[in-house]
């Protein structure tokens, strides 16, 4: 682990999330435990903290480095199973859940994980070694249409077709096994002024595809809401518009008493709101935080309370 991960929007997150000082709190994206530590500092001695991460190295890191006075558990799991893992550990109902999505700095900076286009390493990108498909598998075996769809849907990249074509023609010469070679292929096809944005979009798209990030998210947030005690809170920090759109839409649906199409004269869905939004517009980091921590620049925090 080369870089210490600086937790984003930590004060605002704590302010909104914690309203029961002796409650049970879940950090579903433990990382290097920055938010977890802040939760521990805010909560009473008899609170309970549960840290979940798909990445076993994050779990190991926190086990070895955090000193948490409260009762606490570290669980290596995808948050897709948040409900089952908390239930199995004796906590079917909780007072607060945090999801700080994406990748931590130590994951990004570890060359061997293959997340970064600025260093050379194996084209892997898995959050967890349990996953069987790597970015290398996708890059070398998806067809033109599949690659294009991944780059367009998960990277919102305008030149998806061009880049997909370039990948196919290059891999026909020699398999693309490293981040360095993939980055070079993209660089050669991209105008110099757009290179950084294109590289980050394509790498983001592959990472989302490898980890099924968006598929997992909706189910996990619905399950998380269902586990909250009345008055319990869910706080979610997103880093790109695709994630934020999902959370915004989900919070809108879950906080509505009716989700019928607007043309229906009377309600037929019988949907009942389960949450109330605490943040109409998402909370953004201020300039000082962005200056200190460039990862914060795209962060958005949304919080809701269970009713
Ligand atoms: C932005 S970091 C969290 C940083 C943390 N809040 C801190 O202060 O150190 C996101 C973490 O979530 C984990 N993660 C991402 N998607 C996950 C998922 N679906 N299930 C469980 N963990 C996930 C990643 O492995 C990474 O460690």
Question: What keyword list fits this structure?
Answer:
alpha/beta, DNA polymerase, domain 1, 2 domains, 13 helices, binds S-adenosylmethionine
Explain the overall architecture:
With 307 residues, this protein is an alpha/beta fold. The chain contains 13 helices and 7 strands. The chain has 2 domains: 10-106 and 213-306, Rossmann fold, CATH 3.40.50.150; 113-211, DNA polymerase, domain 1. It has helices at residues 10-17, 34-42, 56-65, 82-88, 105-109, 135-141, 144-155, 160-173, 179-189, 195-211, 213-227, 241-254, 287-292, and strands at residues 24-27, 48-53, 71-76, 94-100, 228-238, 275-277, 300-306. The protein has a 7-stranded mixed β-sheet, sandwiched between helices. Helix 1 packs across helix 2, helix 7 (144-155) packs across helix 10 (195-211) and helix 11 packs parallel to helix 12. The chain is globular and about 60 Å long. The model has no long low-confidence stretch (mean pLDDT 95). The structure holds S-adenosylmethionine. The site of S-adenosylmethionine (SAM) has 23 residues, from helix 2 and strand 2.
Q: What average pLDDT do the residues reach?
A: 95
Order of SSEs: HEHEHEHEHHHHHHHEHEHE
Bound molecules: S-adenosylmethionine
Distance separating the two termini? 41 Å
The CATH topology of the largest domain is given as: Rossmann fold
Structural class: alpha/beta
Overall domain count: 2
Q: Overall 3D geometry? A: globular
Radius of gyration using CA atoms only: 20 Å
What CATH first level of the largest domain would be assigned?
Alpha Beta
Query: Approximately how much helix is present in the residues?
Result: 40-55%
Strand content: 5-15%
The CATH homologous superfamily name of the largest domain equals Vaccinia Virus protein VP39
Helical region count?
13
